[in-house]
Amino acid sequence: MAQLSRRQVLKTSGLSALATFGITTASSAQKTVKKILVAGGHPDDPETGCGGLMALLAEEGHEIISCYLTRGEAGIPNTSASDAAEIRTKEAVTACEILGVTPYFLGQIDGSTEIDNQWYQKVGDYLQETQPEMIFTHWPIDTHRDHRVCSMLIYDAWLRTGQKAALYYYEVVSGGQTQNFSPTHYLDISSVREKKHRSCFAHVSQKIEGVYFNDHGKMEEFRGMEYGCPYAEAFVAHHQNSREYFI
Ligand SMILES: [Zn+2]
């Protein structure tokens, strides 16, 4: 009889979604509730890239922060930055309520994001204060500058806080934005796909519903095909993650 791969074992054993990432909460020595940070450039990036992950982990009782580098100030045509920020903040709060996660806004401006010493310090301080055990951020090779800035600020903060958390990268629109992304980990999101979609569509100003199934929807199906389930999200693990986390 052929041996089951570790991936197949994880898929069929009914373990927590965290098992996908090599984390078991079965041991009494391990804290049952994990704090997980998902960082994105704009309202809707954490949801479209990791909405399934966040929904599954929140349903399992973990503490999830959906962290936005900006409030999407440049994302609504013919609307002032302050009005757009207000509209998109509300949409992000609604999306987070649907997923059962907590929003946090880092305070940069959409379309004008920057990397400098002040921001390295600020994001480093935030990570130090928040102490997440897992971090998910944009894969850094991305056509959108704000996504690259988010990824690099989080990566720098992770380094400067001693690489204590397990760091993973996620994809947004692969091909269109995320590029050269070869997943190391997959998560079956079939059971929470509808909830993920509701959270994405809460970003009404972005008219995501009309285009979703031409990009993100196809990605969910394609990653599902790769993984052997109907719908999946995919991630890249940072190779310098602590052995405790990395498979
Ligand atoms: Zn974005």
Any key phrases for this structure?
binds zinc ion, 247 residues, single chain, 7 strands, Rossmann fold, 39% helix, globular, alpha/beta
Descriptive report:
This protein is an alpha/beta fold and 247 residues long. It has one domain: LmbE-like (Rossmann fold). The protein contains eight helices and seven strands, in the order αβαβαβαβαββαααβ. It has a seven-stranded mixed β-sheet, with helices on both faces. Helix 2 runs parallel beside helix 3, helix 2 packs across helix 6 and helix 3 runs antiparallel to helix 6. The radius of gyration is 17 Å and the shape is globular. Bound molecules: zinc ion. The site of zinc ion has 5 residues, from loops.
The CATH topology annotation reads as Rossmann fold
Quickly name the level 1 CATH class: Alpha Beta
The CATH architecture name reads 3-Layer(aba) Sandwich
Structural class category: alpha/beta
Gyration radius, to the nearest Å?
17 Å
Major sheet strand order? 3-2-1-4-5-7-6
Assign an overall shape: globular
Helix content: 25-40%
Strand composition percent: 15-25%
Count of alpha and pi helical runs: 8
Count of discrete domains: 1
Q: Mind describing the biggest β-sheet? A: 7 strands, mixed
Oligomer: single chain
Question: Terminal Cα separation, in Å?
Answer: 24 Å
Mean pLDDT over the full residue set: 90
What ligands can be seen in this structure?
A: zinc ion
Number of strands: 7
